[in-house]
TrEMBL record:
This is Glutamine synthetase. Signal peptide: none annotated. Keywords: ATP-binding, Ligase, Nitrogen fixation, Nucleotide-binding. Catalyzes the ATP-dependent biosynthesis of glutamine from glutamate and ammonia. Gene3D superfamilies: Glutamine synthetase, N-terminal domain (3.10.20.70), Glutamine synthetase/guanido kinase, catalytic domain (3.30.590.10).
Amino acid sequence: MMPKKLTFDTLKSRVKAGEIDTILVCLVDMQGRLMGKRFVAQHFVDSAYEETHCCNYLLATDLDMATPDGYASTSWQSGYGDYVMKPDLDTLRPVPWLEGTAMVICDVLDHHTHAPVPHSPRAVLKKQLARLDALGFDAAMATELEFFLFEKSYDDIRKSGFRDLAPISGYNEDYHIFQTTKEEHVMRPIRNHLYAAGIPVENSKGEAEAGQEELNIKYDAPLNCADHHTIAKHAIKEIAWQNGHAATFLPKWHHERVGSSSHIHQSLWKDGKSAFYDPDAPHGMSDLMRQYMAGLIKYAPDVTYFLAPYVNSYKRFQKGTFAPTGTVWSIDNRTAGFRLCGENTKSVRVECRVGGSDLNPYLAMATQLAAGIAGIEEKLKLQPPLTGDAYENSGGAQLPATLRDAMVTLKGSDMLRAALGDDVVDHYYRCAEWEQDDFDRVVTDYEIARGFEKA
């Protein structure tokens, strides 16, 4: 039986019965975080279910909630006005790990016109889904969530200056049942609470490093998939905190440790059947799938920023780490940027292995679709698959190696400007530029230790 969300009528009944007294009314910001308000449940079901408001700086801040200049959409000069938060009642769900609480995700609308704010993450994804619908296709997507659990709490780690970090386990726990048993006081409530919240969690497992976890959620329509990913990431942090631990989605928290990714599985469908599957074609790949994959590969550098949005994101792209460095594709080969899964079956699909654990799923999936649609529209030819070690293969194009490289490629991408709009590309270019500028002005511990005496 699939997990169930809440209908509005059921919510009203549960509020009336006193079972739910708080509603989290949330938007998704540029960083993929839930932002919003806690409503008295009775007020929400009486009137606030129609709309509420927020400051428009919520889609023009950084991780520290700073308000950089340079955004066309909002600024000190324009006075930081309001956006409308329009609850999407299809996203109503209980929040079982918080007492008496339910949640709804909002679309973000212009305060004056009530048109969608084009650079809001849900709107970016919805635009690509509309393009796909116009071509006669639906998409199915799934994201993998990788993260690390630590012995200490967020507060303890922050007060220590983020030094001497100790993962919750002492050794590589990839598929390790005994070690993950020791972590069930965190992972079991994560799985079960999310399932009770209407998110189709399939499993969790130990990943390829000490303290590293992976959560897998069943594939779904892209908007549902992005909602599931965002809520799960939020829940993981809250449930870890409730149990005295910290969870991080930083892609590379230590240079000697494995990084954390967020692989994206994707396929296109038509009339309930896979448009990627052709039983008479090599590997079961239809011509449409080959064009779509060729688009992903051709435009991988253009969309890398949306798969790796911070300076730290690029520390993950290293040889021999299961994180790709090139844009080649392969058949069930984890060294390549794109992996064919489900070869010769109706579940044939492509897995993008570029994305890190810090990606915003709405933006990442939207730009994957944009690249795939470009491949279909341009009728691109797919090159033969890589065999062997992709790290040693020099035939394919390389991914941007730094945030600076990725943001320059983003700014110059004609494909993304056509697909997303100039305003959206320029908005996220400014977001990337601020991250890079903020990093560039900081003197790191590494620089001091390396050069204090020796320079």
